[in-house]
Amino acid sequence: AVVSTQSTGEEKKRKQVEREKLEKERRAKEEVMRQREELMLRLRKFEAAARKANDRLQRSEEAAEVLEEKVKLAEEEAIFLAKQATEAQQEILRVRQENVKNNEENIMLKEKLREMEDDA
């Protein structure tokens, strides 16, 4: 009877140890699953943030391309306007020179006219 009580006590103790071991494993497994879920949630948040950052980067790059094109067009227009200004300055100079020449011819013609009048 003593032997069977001891083996029953040992059996109960062994079962208790086994239950505690299983409970500990269950809690550990639950903790691992909780941590996994938490990590998955963080991963999804990081992925969403990365997508948003990539979208902003792409929009910024597109805006930079548009601005670069506008700068290029503005530079081309500035070159064209500078060329037109140079041509206008050259035309002004040509007209002034022609005007001076015409004035000189006018003065010479007036002098010749006076001489002719004086001789007549």
Report on this structure.
By secondary structure, the chain is mainly alpha-helical. It is built from one helix and no strands. The N and C termini lie far apart (174 Å). The model has no long low-confidence stretch (mean pLDDT 94).
| Spatial separation of the terminal alpha carbons | 174 Å
Determine the number of helices (DSSP H or I, runs of at least 4 residues): 1
Strand content: under 5%
Structural class assignment: mainly alpha
Task: Return residue spans where pLDDT drops below 50 for at least 5 consecutive residues.
Answer: none
Order of helices and strands: H
Radius of gyration: 51 Å
What is the β-strand count? 0
Shape: rod-shaped
Main sheet, how many strands, which sense, barrel?
A: none
Percent helix range: over 70%
Query: Mean of residue pLDDT?
Result: 94
Describe the secondary structure blueprint for this structure.
Layout: H1 2-119
Short description:
This protein has one helix and no strands.
Q: What descriptors fit this protein?
A:
mainly alpha
